[in-house]
């Protein structure tokens, strides 16, 4: 610590629950050891598809920001580092990744509170924004003087990847032929800054540099990466070629990507700087799908009054994609499932939207990066906002407003359920600031600890807040702000040798708000404080009464600001009142305690006077006013019609008012609100209003679709009073069937998109919807005791449905539909037949469809059925569930589905809740998903859903308990537990407690004093989630232990009894209960276990020739081979020498530095995040 020159605050109070490790208590930040990278070369000279391996090197040009630079920290995960050189001198280094296994020796802890704290600490320990990294390189002492002169350093690192589980995804189809003929390809992927998974770098969005990228691949392959392709060089034998890319615009390593495969290439005919890449035989689909991309370019460049920032743009379509769209500097990687032919209508808008999102992120997200994680909301907000403008222009105002309502409803529902989404978290400066979101079961300090659902809602809220800012300052000023940010960044990017200027390419919350203030001159501080600096939404309840004497509308607006996820709103709110004489807007002020507001009416009630009624859009219509109150001029009322508050509104008005609103209000949001409200009013009048809307061709198709579903619900509610033919059938016959023969459906001319989406007459989508309709008609079977259900005794209608589903499923195997939509519907139908008791519940069919090789949508539908089967049956399946292929997207969907439809919850008892399941999930969460941030957070979510924050209740009690009598200083057996037969075990020593966490267990027979293990007894803080129950007034506590009869009691030393008990409750081993056979869980234990086991040590790593550890790093070199096998991620790598003579020479060379390096080694070994203690075995290669 003296060498590092760091000050440590030893008086810092410990946080309650989780004790922050000393390693993280350092006040002086490590940024001093992360100098500025100005240029980086990445060279991948071998990609082996057969072995799924990569070999290459990187070279970083570093400008020291401090004198006497002696440490350089970089990010690198799962890379095997062979050698490191700094300015051609061999450099020693330490590789330590605490996120590989979050909780060491905590196999019996199983406490999510503890895990979340440890995981946050582990991620913080390697956070590049805080100056940390997994790879620490010691600058050779010969170069320290060079650091004084501020000369550049060149850091050269050789590395390889062997079967990477994250960062790079290899797709190698199991068919015959060469790799190119098989369509084998590889692409980079990851959630947030994940470039460290495939090459060493400073993996931060705020660290910009220029790039040179070289990739050597087989001659039949194409390598696509960021920047301009300057040349392609073949080898002498013409079997390989090297692609040379140059990216002169300063870019963060997190925005660098790679894709290699036998791609077919299409140059955009309207913009030659745009190139598209797809897998073999998909070129016709690529041409159609990309035919309108130039229009998106033109739109963004026009509204931003700024040219696209890069000199080229590349789109790559890959199979088994991580997400639909991944944006990187000058290129985007898409799922190949977005491609479609001209025959497919339904996919067209979805693909266009994905392209528009990717291009928006090129401007804000890739070209302009962020200063820190706390500023992420600005980039996501701006890119989402300008994407919304594209949506409005291309698909219309109705589609845009429908999308805004949809996004608002999703976000509000999530916030009310989870307790709030915080856009701009700040940390430090008090206990509340350290954890600004105590209502969440995960930390929001890093993007890598976030729930995926939370991050999706975070993006959603960000663009909604941008829209609120636009409402406040106008769209014109908003676009000027964006243009200013882009102009400054463009100027900065052209400063080739002035890297200090590149900070203009980073946006922060402060700089963004300052730009808004400078451009618009308006203060949006209160808006930011309400929606950005704090979480939660507003929940309004509205009702009204009309005062006929005063001709006044008495409106009451109440708020719920005490429930989870809600906040109090004070400020203006817009109310729109549709009266007989027109539509009138009123702005009310919501004060602290004001509930009631008097709004004067402009109209008088009409009695038998017919007159057209003017609407908000200026249109005048005739209305049948017979349903309304004769004394009131009010037709309908709307609160916050423009959605200018992030809110949920529950408003009470009469059914006829909702019916008028549906029929005559021209805003689609108002119509959708009224459809939702009419579900509660199953009356003939509601039925008529919905039918009228359905038959209006000029009405927005999404509103008509909503009316269909609402009408079906109302018809079901009115079964006893319904008159006439079935509601939906008569409508369908009237709208879509031949007049002369009502049983024959007319051919769809595809002239009207509105009617197409209502009828869905594309062959595969139409047939899939018909199967869904058949499924929805199913009702539970009437079971007769002891009846064996067979096809012969099925109900006639159900048999017809089953035959139709079987026929469609078999036809799909011969003539597959686009995206196998019909198969997906058939699988769901079969599951519904099982759930309703018509056919036996059996998951074997779904397991076969869940296997690798089926289309991803089919696999997800089959897995959904397996998850539902597990929940419904509450028993294990008779045969093993088929093992899934490790496609990150599929595993993510499994975990998400289990979280959404869990087999049990923490509030309910279930035979599936057992120790084996806890074991499986804990391993998955702790070490099995270290290669993918998203999967780890999915596993945390599932663990929380099933077991909550504290230790799972299903874990067994120990065979024996120990009672400490602190008055008599004795430890005696709990008298309620019968002791085992054997030697006298009545009195035991406390030091005989067998420990399983925090400290490596001592060798057998070795006795340790209590104070030698725990240190000062008062120094151990309790772990989170542990609850102690005092037995009686004599201060006896139950402790779970394994007991040895040999040791003696040592209770004489003074100590804090409470801390002592807390400490030992956490670290005691908890054996399983004998005779208990856990119930296996088909979906959880087997589906999730595939390829997600804790990473085993590759024998190749252990067999590599390595330099013996010098005394600086090897003081604790007496480690057991067992430990080195278990903890692969603690490596000291030096240059690999083959001759013993050179080994000894190297060892002697570093001997004089032993004292300094010894201190360094403790800096990496003492962190609970890395699971090491002062006494645990040393790090080994």
UniProtKB/TrEMBL annotation:
Annotated SUPFAM superfamilies: Leukotriene A4 hydrolase N-terminal domain (SSF63737), Metalloproteases ('zincins'), catalytic domain (SSF55486)
Note the Pfam families from the entry: TAF2_3rd (PF25316), TPR_TAF2_C (PF25577)
Which segments carry the region annotation Disordered? 994-1034, 1110-1181
Q: Out of the domains of life, which is the source? A: Eukaryota
| Predominant place of localization | nucleus
GO CC: one term?
transcription factor TFIID complex
Q: Which InterPro entries match?
A: Aminopeptidase_N-like_N_sf (IPR042097), Ig-like_TAF2 (IPR057345), Peptidase_M4/M1_CTD_sf (IPR027268), TAF2 (IPR037813), TPR_TAF2_C (IPR057991)
Q: What is this protein called?
A: Transcription initiation factor TFIID subunit 2
In its UniProt entry, the species of origin is given as Oncorhynchus tshawytscha (Chinook salmon)
Q: What is the lineage of its organism?
A: Eukaryota, Metazoa, Chordata, Craniata, Vertebrata
